[in-house]
Amino acid sequence: MSDLEQRLREQLLAFNLPQVNLPLNLVGRIEQLTAGPSAVEAAITLHFPVRLLAKAMEAALLELLRSASGIEKCKLTLKCEVQATPAVGETQNLERVKNVIAVASGKGGVGKSTTSVNLALALAAEGAKVGILDADIYGPSQQVMLGVKEGQRPEQYGTHYLKPIVAHGLQSMSMGYLVTEKTPMVWRGPMASGALQQLLYQTYWDDLDYLVIDMPPGTGDIQLTLSQKVPVTGAVIVTTPQDIALLDAKKGIEMFQKVDVPVLGIVENMAVHVCTNCGHAEHLFGEGGGQKIANDYKVPMLGALPLTLNIREQADKGLPVVAENSESETSLIYREVAIRLAAELARRQASGANKAFPNIVIKND
User: 126-155: per-residue pLDDT in tens?
Assistant: First the structure.
């Protein structure tokens, strides 16, 4: 390796990628780098999907090569390859699933399920292969949000599996596919936890980069089951700027920290309302709460989503905003959040930040 190639390699690896603000060495790798007297050629692989920002990142990296080498003729090939997070501790690995992301909140009513499905769709829009599991056994909602007709049932695959229902390009599974809308799930915690594990492990997920789990609100049995029995790569906390929602979001973060599930970031939902008639922006539920929590717990602030009628209407119609038009203004916000989320996950994989999960034991002293 020539001195020029070594210098270019060092500068590339230390370069902070635009929008995600993370150095290349933590979220990607250099596959090839050659520098001659009149031309430079490089091939780089990112460990997260980034279709929306690919051109901007290519341009920034090319500019770095040209300025660092003094050579105008530079060629760059950029591709994405999501890496798998291995199961650790006593968790059972999920076959054909590289990463499991739990989307949670400390309380209901903050738009967690709507955020979950749009984040899953946003990751898919970036080029990843994505599935979504509705873990709310008592009140499943993803069937409605994905527009899956009532009565549509998963097909059996082999003797032990069910095929996920594909909707808007997402592989999906929900208790809502197995019962009717009017069926109450009158189950104690262990029964609900057992049902969740069956949905998770007996669904034939087809080579997913990410499985997004739409968690039920709270910090109870389902959350503990996921933390102890399932190889959760990381969690995303959804909150609104409202003080009471922020208090519950903190409880959610504390719960995941106690069971060593890394929190990948905060998403602030319903952050600002913009009047469709006059364009006036107003923070109906407060301002800056999500960023404050992110600062307090030293986790990334992934993004803030507006309070708009369209997000609610599209979810109720079974056509979430990202599925309706992945290039709309609101969809682009979701996609930017998804990119930051995936980049943070890649950073944690590179730094070995995912710790072994503890074995939770309850004793009567």
Answer: 999 999 999 887 767 888 999 998 888 899
Closest-CA residue to 231 (of 262, 265, 206, 190): 262
What amino acid occupies position 153? R
CB-CB neighbours of 10 under 10 Å:
12
DSSP conformation letters of 207-237: SEEEEEEEPPSSSSHHHHHHHHHS---EEEE
CA-to-CA distance for 233 and 350, rounded, in angstroms? 13
For residues 239 and 15, what is the distance between their CA atoms, to the nearest angstrom?
32
Measured distance CA(43)–CA(36) in Å, rounded: 15
Residue-wise pLDDT for 150-198, tens only, equals: 888 899 988 889 999 999 999 999 888 876 655 555 455 566 677 777 8
Q: Give Rg (Cα) of the chain.
A: 22
Contact at 8 Å (CB) between 26 and 350?
Answer: yes
Of 235, 189, 205, nearest in space to 93 by CA: 205
Its pTM stands at 0.89
Residues 217, 257 contacting (CB under 8 angstroms): no
Q: How far apart are CA 113 and CA 111, in angstroms?
A: 6
- Which of 36, 40, 35, 15 has its CA nearest to residue 25? 15
Burial of 187 per CB tally in 10 Å (0-12, 13-18, 19+): middle
Q: How many CB atoms lie within 10 A of CB 200?
A: 22
Contact residues for 176 (Cβ-Cβ < 8 A; gap 6+) = 134, 140, 141, 142, 143, 144, 148
DSSP-assigned letters across all residues of 41-65 = EEEEEESS--TTTHHHHHHHHHHHH
SS3 readout for 290-331: HHHHHHHHCCCEEEECCCCHHHHHHHHCCCCHHHHCCCCHHH
Alpha helices per DSSP H over 137-218: 142-145, 189-201
How far is the C-alpha of 86 from the C-alpha of 180, rounded, in Å? 36
Tokens for 288, please give them.
Answer: 């800056």
Choose among 171, 122, 114: nearest CA to 144: 114
How far apart are alpha carbons 42 and 24 in whole angstroms? 13
